[in-house]
Amino acid sequence: MKADAIKIDGASAGSVELDDAIFGLEPRADILHRVVRWQRNNAQAGTHATLGRSDVSYSTKKIYRQKGTGGARHGSKGAPIFRHGGVYKGPTPRSHGHELTKKFRKLGLRHALSAKQAAGELVVIDQLSVDNAKTSALAKHVNDRGWKRALIIDGTEVNADFARAARNLANLDVLPSVGANVYDILKSDTLVITKAGLEALEARLK
């Protein structure tokens, strides 16, 4: 399929051919859900921890004699039933990540790109360049285009001057093509891809 391309200032930059195998799929929510869940689980720190019975600092001396007290039998003050005792089966540091095949991850990225194209939230631009690499100039271009919470994907490397100009814009993220991922694509309101980014993504998803 064909798509119009623009420059960062809104001027026309001709048209580009979008690969139907990447941008023309019928988006499937189940595939996108599985890939996003895989991403977020792998990003989870898993550093939650509590003190168990063997971790709390108490004397190991029996707290009172076995018989004759009229109370229940107890040995350790660190037992979970006592205040400040250890936590029974509390969380321990662990990895929340799980496996997902490379083939399925590529499929998820194709469906994410197709979802943006189908929703009319995909913009193709010629290249990343801003006069004098000023944040104020880039912010004006972004506002003029009406991009809110935009994700820009460039080629194998992001233009250094553009990345510097975009660094202080809260509603703008810039990634190289290798960093393109389903979660960031779906959470953006506008997906902006350069012509170099298109070529790199097509090569990556072949």
TrEMBL record:
The keyword RNA-binding applies. Residues 66-96 are annotated as: Disordered. Keywords: Ribonucleoprotein, Ribosomal protein, RNA-binding, rRNA-binding. One of its GO terms (cellular component) is ribonucleoprotein complex. One of its GO terms (biological process) is translation. Forms part of the polypeptide exit tunnel. HAMAP family: Ribosomal_uL4_B. This is Large ribosomal subunit protein uL4. It comes from Loktanella atrilutea. The gene is rplD.
